[in-house]
Amino acid sequence: MTQPGPRGRYGGRTAAERRAERRERLMTAGLELFGTAGYAASTVGQICREANLSTRQYYEEFADREALLIAVYDHVNAEAQAAVAESVKNTHGEPLTERIKAALTVYALTTATDLRRAKVAYVEIVGVSPGVEEHRMATRARWVELMQALLSTGIADGEIPDRDYRLASSAYIGAANGLLQDWCATPDRAPLADAVAELARISAALTG
């Protein structure tokens, strides 16, 4: 039988490492089930079987199913926000329209190339509960702020009029989420590149 090692190690890993590995397995199982069968059809028991863990181990990491859904959703958004921030940095000095198009491309690729991620980000997260809706809207607000920051560079460079773009940014994020939600939910969906091109046209219209 494997014996605990020094400094709380067991099987060569610390308790923190084992817990992180369990959490990762639950996150992977949540993405798989929420992104295929759907949130409403996925029970904690099914998630645990998918992760090959016990329900006791599940509740050591997550208070309930909503907590796991939020964690998976946050992970998708965190990766997308990091990718968009990197795109904005890498396209510094280019025309605003090209910077927006590049940001949209990496946003769509990060969130929607894997249909499971798209389903979590745009379909399964919507309308779950008041608490989840509050979290979703707070995440949306952060995307609006990021869009405003990008547009502010266009103001500084004299590419677009100097005005308040908060409402335009909100309208754009709403349009982007709605378009990708519809794209994700349509069985005979168009190529993702078509959705990206449509997003670019919407952004051009909003910025004039």
UniProtKB/TrEMBL annotation:
Per UniProt, which keywords does this protein have? DNA-binding
Q: Which InterPro entries match?
A: Homeodomain-like_sf, HTH-type_TetR-like_transc_reg, HTH_TetR, KstR2_TetR_C, Tet_transcr_reg_TetR-rel_C_sf
Entries under Pfam families matching the protein: TetR_C_24, TetR_N
Give the coiled coil ranges: none
Query: What residue stretches are annotated with the HTH tetR-type domain?
Result: 20-80
DNA-binding keyword on record: yes
> Entry's SUPFAM superfamilies?
Homeodomain-like (SSF46689), Tetracyclin repressor-like, C-terminal domain (SSF48498)
Residue numbers of the DNA-binding region are 43-62
PROSITE patterns, A to Z = HTH_TETR_2 (PS50977)
What name appears for this protein in its UniProt entry? TetR/AcrR family transcriptional regulator
Question: Which lineage is the organism of this entry classified under, starting from the top rank?
Answer: Bacteria, Bacillati, Actinomycetota, Actinomycetes, Pseudonocardiales
